[in-house]
From TrEMBL:
<feature type="region of interest" description="Disordered">
    <location>
        <begin position="1"/>
        <end position="26"/>
    </location>
</feature>
<feature type="region of interest" description="Disordered">
    <location>
        <begin position="313"/>
        <end position="334"/>
    </location>
</feature>
<protein>
    <submittedName>
        <fullName>DUF4192 domain-containing protein</fullName>
    </submittedName>
</protein>
<feature type="region of interest" description="Disordered">
    <location>
        <begin position="212"/>
        <end position="244"/>
    </location>
</feature>
<dbReference type="Pfam" id="PF13830">
    <property type="entry name" value="DUF4192"/>
</dbReference>
<dbReference type="InterPro" id="IPR025447">
    <property type="entry name" value="DUF4192"/>
</dbReference>
């Protein structure tokens, strides 16, 4: 079972500030409801099974929000709420209705992909659809292996008992246009998000580079004082430790730019980033200060605080990094703390929160997934945790939980991963979603 996934798709004509030049996706014209039903797998990136997907159409005629939830999740929630008065937590309907309203939805196409009987499916999704119907016009559909039809249609001349052939959905003009636009479709949710291991020769090169970088860092710490004392661990500004961390952040930015260029040239492709550089980045991310700096670098306007975080490890008042004790830093450290809190507020605080930039998020995901694909498991926890944070920030709770669980499997003591797992278990949405009324 996967939690509700809420994915914001940018207007293809207006990707928003900070989008990479040339990164604007071509518009795909959808002229009928059937076209929109056909587009669901491409919008999600995989072929949904036993799930309800809602596609919001705004007053401007664009897709404003796409959300998916598993039918088993809905059935379990319905059973749990029957014995809880009031319910112990907000349900799918309570979180989804304000979000649909918040994006200015005029029409909503609800698509149930299921091999189950149509009437049985209708009973499972009824609470959600009834709640959405109070907000906008809802057009429900059922896509089964045997065919597709209106979920509520009882007219056999309109919807045959076995539905219309699904080939009409899979091979239409809209799907062809979405593929051209770079929207690839995986056979399942699991396959869409599987990180494929790199060939063994490349993994060996990455592992050697990571080990060399880790040994060099350990030698520098030993030279600085045998690994004891605050400055030996954290390094004052200008120290060798500070320069090493800053170099790690610079390597991240270099790989991020490389990935962005590659993805503009081949949307949906896998950038070739070099196993040695990926190995060095894995070793750099094992340092909490570098990991936090990388996370901050993804937040619009936080480049300066990211560099200051890498240069000198600040205390963290907001839970971004609590893996190590904070170093001394006096007023400068306090300034970094304040700047860090303001940056993180743009992720978690609905009053000032922003959604992640699509181009930057895609490049960051490509780099971090390539790190995981190339290095041994002992280096996996930091990049997987960052992937989990990024997925959560984008509103993809299912993917965030998958990446976070994998990070904890690699390192059960990785505190940011444990913290994120708690956020996900509590179904706390990112700030930009909550600003639209979710949660």
């Amino acid at each position: 079972m996967h939690p509700t996934v809420v994915a914001q798709f940018p207007d293809p004509h207006d990707p928003g500030p900070g989008a990479p030049p040339g990164g604007v996706e071509p518009a795909v014209r959808v002229r009928t409801t059937r076209d929109l039903v056909a587009a669901v797998p491409a919008l999600l990136g995989y072929r949904p099974q036993e799930s309800l997907t809602v596609v919001c159409v705004t007053g401007a005629g664009t897709v404003g929000l796409v959300a998916r939830v598993g039918l088993d999740d809905l059935a379990a929630e319905r059973a749990a709420s029957a014995g809880s008065h009031p319910p112990a937590a907000l349900g799918v309907r309570d979180r989804l209705v304000p979000a649909v309203r918040g994006v200015g939805t005029v029409t909503l196409v609800a698509v149930v992909h299921s091999a189950r009987d149509r009437r049985a499916v209708r009973r499972v999704v009824a609470p959600v659809l009834d709640g959405l119907d109070a907000v906008c016009d809802v057009d429900p559909w059922h896509v089964a292996p045997t065919g597709y039809r209106g979920l509520d249609c009882e007219d056999p001349s309109c919807c045959p008992p076995d539905g219309h052939p699904t080939a009409g959905l899979e091979h239409g003009a809209v799907n062809a246009a979405l593929v051209v636009a770079g929207r690839t479709v995986a056979p399942s949710w699991e396959e869409a998000h599987r990180i494929v291991r790199a060939p063994e020769a490349l993994r060996s090169r990455a592992a050697r580079a990571a080990s060399r970088a880790a040994r060099a860092a350990a030698d520098r710490r030993e030279d600085a004082g045998g690994g004891t004392g605050t400055d030996a661990v954290h390094g004052p500004p200008g120290s060798r430790e500070s320069r090493r961390r800053t170099a790690g952040l610079d390597l991240w930015h270099d790989l991020l730019r490389h990935a962005a260029v590659a993805l503009r040239a081949e949307p949906g492709g896998t950038p070739e980033l070099g196993p040695a550089r990926l190995g060095r980045l894995a070793a750099a991310l094992a340092d909490v200060a570098v990991r936090d700096a990388v996370l901050l670098s993804l937040i619009p306007g936080a480049d300066d605080v990211a560099r200051r975080t890498a240069a000198r490890r600040p205390a963290s008042p907001v839970g971004v990094a609590r893996d190590e004790s904070a170093g001394a830093g006096g007023a400068e450290s306090g300034d970094v703390e304040v700047a860090t809190a303001r940056a993180i507020a743009r992720v978690v605080d609905p009053r000032v929160a922003v959604a992640p930039d699509p181009g930057t998020a895609a490049a960051a995901r490509a780099v971090l997934e390539q790190v995981v694909a190339h290095v041994p498991r002992r280096w996996h926890a930091p990049p997987l945790t960052l992937l989990g944070v990024l997925a959560w920030w984008q509103g993809d709770g299912g993917l965030a939980m998958r990446r976070t669980s994998a990070a904890i499997e690699a390192d059960a003591q990785h505190r940011l991963a444990v913290l994120l797992r708690g956020v996900l278990a509590a179904a706390v949405p990112p700030g930009w979603v909550r600003a639209r009324g979710v949660g």
